[in-house]
Amino acid sequence: MLEQINQVAFAVILVIIVYIILRILFPENNQDTSNNNESVTSPDTEQKIKDLEIQCQRLREELKQQSQQLQSDFQNETFTQLQTLLSNYPTVKKMALAKPDLPAKNLISLFTSLDNLITSWGYTAIGETWEQVNYNPQLHQADSDDIQEGELVYIRFIGYQNSDKILYAAKVSRTLPPGFDNN
């Protein structure tokens, strides 16, 4: 789909360039100063210009429609991949409020669709929850301004990256949450 958009964009740019070239090669000129300075352009040139303008408008509309279709396809694909999670979330929320002692491990399988989506997009996690790592300000967001690069910290919340681009830095701290230890 992206290739089609690039092709349409290229075609639009090409039409605009041709239009500009035609305007330069066939400017409106004065036929005779005695004719009250009326501009004269050949009918053939005028028709070519009108045809190019129509084609340019058609290509703009195609590009707009393709953009809307891509957005719709993206939303539908994402919804399909998250459908299980989205369908079960309201029930799980009600259950958690009604039964606060419900074991969280019973809910973990609901997040499989979210894991699959992240994997299909090619995103990778930055660290693992509660993993001890050396602080790297490029990958981590510290909970304290005095944490120094290379200092040992714990990942409180993982981050995500796509290749070398950091989408969301992992949140780190010097300590684990109260009640949790490294064992």
TrEMBL record:
The chain crosses the membrane at residues 7-26. This is Molecular chaperone GrpE. The keyword Coiled coil applies. It comes from the Bacteria. The lineage of its organism: Bacteria, Bacillati, Cyanobacteriota, Cyanophyceae, Nostocales. Keywords: Coiled coil, Membrane, Transmembrane, Transmembrane helix. Residues 42-76 form a coiled coil.
